[in-house]
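Fold this complex.
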Amino acid sequence: MHIDKDLVAASATPLVLGILAEGESYGYAIVKRVNELSGGRMQWTDGMLYPLLHRLERNGYVRASWGTSDAGRRRKHYAITEAGLETLAERQKQWSVVADALKQVWWATSHPPVPGSAAAGGIA
Amino acid sequence: MGHIAPPGPRERRGGRDRLMSDAARGDVLEDQIDQWRGFVSRRRAISPADVEEMEDHLRERIADLGANGLDAEEAFLVAVKRMGNLDEVSREFAREHSHRLWKQLVLVPEAEDGAGGLSRWRELGVVLACALGAGLAVKLLFTSVDGEIAQIRNVAFVVLPFLAGWFAWKRRVTWRTCAAVAAVAAVPALAVNLYPFEATPGPFPSPGMTAVLAFTHAPVLLWLLVGVLHTGGHWRSHERRMDFVRFMGELVIYLALIMLGSVVLVGLTFAVLALVDVDLEPFFEDWLLPFGLPGALLVAAWLVEAKKSVVENIAPVLTRVFTPLALLMLAADLVALLVDGPLTTVDRDLLILMDAILVLVLFLLLYSISARDPMARAGVFDWLQLALVGAALAVDAVALTAMLTRIAEFGFTANKTAALGLNLVLLVHLVWSAWLMVGFVRGTRPFAAIERWQTAYLPVYAVWAGLVVLVFPPLFGFA
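Structure:
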């Protein structure tokens, strides 16, 4: 399924912060986790994750450190910070408001209110 | 990985066609990853650490895809595609790290530099010591030597050795080369101080023609000797000579900027201290100038050396801006000379003016050549430059023809000979440059020929300056 670019961009920050709240991780593992969580329906452009991680690092939401992978390569690990957890909580609130509003409006459109009898009378 | 058993060319070819050995497959993959890394590394917004991070990602993805049954090449292609359009990714990096697009100059080492940092601190220390030494030398010159003329003619001889010394230290020049350069430099130093120059007669004696010529040409000679040390003693190398030319252009610009900043700073200090009736002038003249000017020279030289690989050279950028403007100016000059001629005042000043124009054109030529990619084909700018040199030669030719008849009438003085000689030296430089450029824009000559000619001709200026300092005074009776 193709998900609109703006929506991907908007959801990326809370998603990454949420994944990091589960525990320290690194780039490729985060992408895999996103894939898992969305049942393969959310496909990120892998390269775009890194500028995002760097932005989160600059804002102090995550802390980065270099470690080594099993294969012996240098690997950058990211862990969420206090500020990151606060931001995540804040974003969660925002998203639940949005999701709630969306749910209501969609419930309303899928069950449209029956036009009043006055309207029916008007046509006749 | 993959380098355990490097396959022979035969095996490799066979592998491509039929069964590919594991080693060969790993090799191909490594080559592809190398290539990818090369592409990504070329993006300025993506730092080496980022490339490393993304390469780790790419390898993980390839390994996962491989585990799902894709062969190495397919896995690589899919992984690269998943990484995304490099332009877009790089733009995203640039948005996050916009400072990376502005090259950063690190002058003093940072904590993480480790052992490399120490040598940079040491370099800074040596530069400051040289700057201080040059300041002390100037101060000593002005306090111990009587007579303004004697002071001025020796300033270059006491300041430039410190710059030369710094280059000698930085480039680890051998003692023999240093001694040879010092010995050559001693000759003009002795000449300007010991020649029996005659002062102009009158109540206020001022130095005569040959004296002024010697004083003004000696620093040029000395500067080119500093260049020998800048090249680390490899002054025969054309590349090193070109490096010195580049250094000179940047130095002038940095020096001008430092001076500008200093003027603002000193002006503000003067103004503030004037409020409380403190007169800064004695301190300014006695201490600030003698230490500040040589210090600015050394610091500017150090900055140019430090930023060499980090910041784009600014001199070539300026030449790009000024070449079309200079061409317009020369075209206007030429039209004016031809329409409103013949020249009314044909004297020494005209010659000096023409020399100045040729020097300007020469610098415009030199600095755009210094930054041009020799492999690039001839473009509009090369034509523009050829036109510029052509216009300069035409203006000079008009002025010279008017000049020669007059010189024949009034005879040669030292000044006229010096001005005419310099004109000739510049003319040879430019005419041959123009000839080579015609060849280049018509595609019959490589650009390298033009470049080489510029650096090959540099010593001629040293020889000419040496002639004016050493031979002119006795030739014209020290008048």
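The interface with chain A takes residues 49-50, 52-57, 59-61, 64, 82-86, 88-89, 92-93, 95-97 of chain B (CB under 8 Å).
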